């Protein structure tokens, strides 16, 4: 039995925070899920699965209205799922047997690090290092919030100048802080080795690269890409660090195919 089970739409870089951490720490993580559209026909539960023919009607009592990302969709969530996951969102993680629910990708990633701390200290070696890492993770949440609003607006065609400006400013603040953290010729964000701070950064930037797939929507509204052609010159240490991480053996299985695909869209 896996030490942690995660249910989510896939592919999802925020899930990969946990799977990357698991490779460092030797933790057994199981991931279940499908594309966002396909999750409409899944049972949302610890034992999440695709619904069979005719089950939608027989399980109509479990139907709930989707919100973020699946707004208005009819989703089938068990009472046990909502007890473990009170906000009802994915990614949703569970301890063995599904009795304990863990939500929010940074918290799921932290759980993996705690489970495998004896193998690799991704969460630091003492309270001070852990709190320093938490500082980077908390800052990432501010960026992630505006990033999510922006990417969803690009996806559903509702992006406007105000949403774009908030995302652009959020990225600039986040990237500038990371550039400063790396500026003393550092190859990790904090401490002496790779940590949860680096994993979170790589996953969030990979997710933000979905902007490349929506360049046409931006052009139609007279807006420029935030990850424009010269962005690497503005934050050279940040993007050099990102490239190192994508090539790393524990990051590469998840991130490289995803990043390569989006980079090809940017080049096109």
Automatic annotation (TrEMBL):
Protein name listed in UniProt: Glutathione S-transferase
**Provenance organism:** Bradyrhizobium jicamae
Q: Which residues form the signal peptide?
A: none
- Location of the GST C-terminal domain: 126-268
Matching PROSITE patterns, A to Z? GST_CTER (PS50405)
Q: List the PANTHER family hit by this protein, alphabetically.
A: ELONGATION FACTOR 1-GAMMA (PTHR43986)
Which taxonomic lineage does the organism of this UniProt entry have? Bacteria, Pseudomonadati, Pseudomonadota, Alphaproteobacteria, Hyphomicrobiales
Q: Which superkingdom, per the lineage?
A: Bacteria
């Amino acid at each position: 039995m896996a030490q942690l089970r995660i249910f989510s739409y896939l592919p999802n870089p925020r899930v990969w925070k946990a799977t990357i951490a698991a490779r460092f720490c030797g933790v057994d993580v199981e991931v279940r899920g499908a594309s966002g559209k396909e999750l409409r026909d899944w049972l949302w539960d610890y034992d999440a699965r695709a619904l069979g023919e005719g089950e939608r009607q027989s399980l109509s009592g479990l139907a709930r209205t989707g919100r973020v990302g699946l707004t208005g969709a009819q989703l089938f969530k068990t009472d046990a799922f909502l007890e473990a996951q009170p906000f009802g969102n994915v990614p949703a993680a569970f301890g063995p047997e599904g009795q304990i629910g863990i939500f929010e990708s940074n918290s799921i990633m932290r759980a993996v690090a705690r489970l495998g701390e004896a193998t690799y200290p991704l969460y630091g070696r003492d309270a001070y290092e852990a709190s320093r890492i938490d500082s980077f993770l908390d800052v990432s949440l501010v960026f992630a919030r505006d990033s999510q609003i922006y990417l969803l607006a690009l996806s559903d065609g509702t992006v406007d100048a105000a949403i774009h400006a908030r995302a652009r400013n959020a990225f600039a603040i986040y990237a500038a802080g990371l550039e400063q953290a790396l500026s003393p010729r550092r190859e990790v964000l904090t401490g002496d080795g790779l940590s949860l701070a680096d994993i979170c950064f790589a996953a969030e930037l990979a997710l933000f690269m979905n902007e490349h797939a929506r360049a046409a929507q931006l052009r139609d509204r007279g807006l420029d890409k935030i990850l424009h052609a010269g962005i690497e010159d503005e934050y050279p240490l940040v993007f050099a660090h990102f490239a190192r991480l994508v090539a790393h053996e524990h990051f590469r299985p998840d991130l490289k195919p995803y990043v390569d695909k989006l980079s090809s869209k940017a080049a096109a």
